[in-house]
Amino acid sequence: MLTILARRCARHRRPVLALAALAAVACALLGHGVAARLASGGWTVPGSPSARAEALLTDRFHAGAPDVVLLARAPDSVDAPAARAAGLALVGRLCREPGVTGVDSYWTGPVTRGSCPAAGGGRAPGGGGEVDDAALRSYDARTALVTVRLDGGGRAGRATVERLLPAATAPRGPLQVRASGHAVLDRALERYSERDLLRTELIALPATLLLLVFVFGSVAAACLPLAVGAVAVAGTLAVLRGLTAVTEVSTFALNLTGAVGLALSVDYSLYLVARYREEIASGSPPEDALAGAVRSAGRIVVVSAAAVALCLLGLLAFPLYFLRSMAYAGVSVVLLAALAALVLVPAALACFPRAIGRGDLFARRRRAPGRAGRGWRRLALRVMRRPLLVTALATGVLLVLALPFRQVVFGFSDDRVLPRDAPEVRATQALRDGFPQLRNPVEVALPGWRPDRPGRIAELDAYAKRLSALPGVLGVRTATGSYVLGRDAPLACAAEASPARGTLPGCPALRHFTSPAGTWLAVGGEADPYAPASTALLARLQEARAPAPPLVGGPTAQFRDARNTLAQRLPWALGAMAVATFVLLLAFTRSVFLPLKALALNLLSLTATFGAMVFIFQQGHMKWLVGDFTATGTVSVVMPVVAFCLAFGLSLDYEILLLARIGEAHARTGDTVRATAAGLQAAAPLFTASAALVLTVLLALATAEVALMKLLAVTTALSVVLDAAVIRPLLVPAVMRLAGRANWWLPTPPRRGARTVLPQPSPSPETVEPSHPG
Length: 774
Prior knowledge:
transmembrane helix; Mycobact_MmpL; transmembrane; MMPL_dom; membrane
């Protein structure tokens, strides 16, 4: 089938190239503006207890985490008349904005559109007046908070934030206003992600082109992988644009699309062009050389794309749309890159056979085809003389590199994934410093339970006191008042009512803690949301005796639910990936041992990668090498999963190439040692050139200002380095030598005349050793 495809693409080369260009343009037009439709969340588990608590608080209490938090700072005190008047004017303007459902502030308490403060700072018609909510004022009395809730999220919410922030943060009398909150941070994350994507392209494209010119020795040949990448990326943008109509897609999918699309387009084009040049060097006519190249290297491309796609499909096992978005983008761009390479490369080779297939600016400096890669052959033979020693030493080094992963502490990403000098990050840090009780907000909801009679009011009062007395709790607020260390805290409003007497305080700031849907309590945690102490606090809150079964929400609860879901589904996802990959490689190699060896060596290289993830990004080492970022003492719980699937797939790409070359040599020689040495000699120039090109793309991505993308790029780049420098040239020959005839064992041999998927040698090669791609 691949041979037929190659001959047809060559026969209709000009229409094929024209149609590919038109398809790329059409897909680019369809995908235009996709960035505006992407979301920057995707960390929470739909239907989890924390998600139900958040939905209940948002829909029925207009509570929970606000979308926008404004920090209004006065030169002296926020209680000064001028500051108060400016604050009331700010609240009045905000609550009248379209798309705003409610505002809460130090000066007013919770207000809605019908109770906005009147212009000029007077009392609102309908009773919204000036009440001081001490929880929204800093200890130095110079900063007051104004929280804003928006009507819905998505594009409408982003449009509201874009319209609201410039006016809200403009100088207002004596007040200087800064903005934080998850809607503001999401906006900043999208902005920095778009900048990172542009920077990656500006660095990666010219650097990759220069390296491709050196590898291929031809400008025309160097432009071919970039054209394949452009088609794959444009097609993926159109796919993502369509997916946004039916599901949420993370903004980080764009970054993955560009990096993976370019990297694999280069890989697949390199394999095809290099094999075509080998066929030409062996004396085949151009048409036969093209058919032979696609028949052998094309199978490698198909199996490699299938293997990488299977690895990324494992991300669909998890309900977090951040992970699913990576699968959508990754699988789409991998399959499109393979399809574009199998169609465009034969057509381009047929159209420009000399410029792409034979032209080499550096031909005089390269070794003769039969001598290329002899250093790799000698290395393989030396390794196979002492296979046990090499295996033990290489494995030991990789295991030592993996040791830091024993100290991993998982968490979630927060504002600190952004550059530390970003205005939104500085505002959020000021919020942590000035309002420690809001550092780790935990919401405890009691659905359907209301303090509507004296006995229940006293019961809620006792429950709130019990929670405030727990270790790690700074304070508790609910409808019955404020509590610290198991005791009542003073209220800022005049409240003659007393929970002990069976009546609720009349403070406006406390009214939103009850509704017909039930009651909730705001608990302030002492530790950072993703610290182990906060997870322990969550358990104590759930174990405390409550008036009704509680639902616990907040960042810590969301992290716990996501971590538990990942832990439950990860074994199934990994098992499915391993079985699917094993079956694919079994069909490709007609061997039981070789797929098992591939899986084991890939896992070994990834353990070292995870160790580096903790050493660099959790503990904050080597910033001089990877660039500045904020080490939070945790690793985002979703990033090892993404890094595993991506790095595992890329490693399989090189493994499949090497196995194909070894299999071809074994079919000629029947000797494992000679076949392994010849296979490494043929494949190493290809996978080292490919690794250098992939590293160029990943290191360009590593310049990202968003720490999540930096982490993914650096750890995947390290995996590629280990794979090209340790796994393929050292461990593969050593293990192949130790296994001996077991490498080729299959329980039931194929029937006579049965075809294997493993590429077969060309009809009449002159030499065992293929030529260098150049």
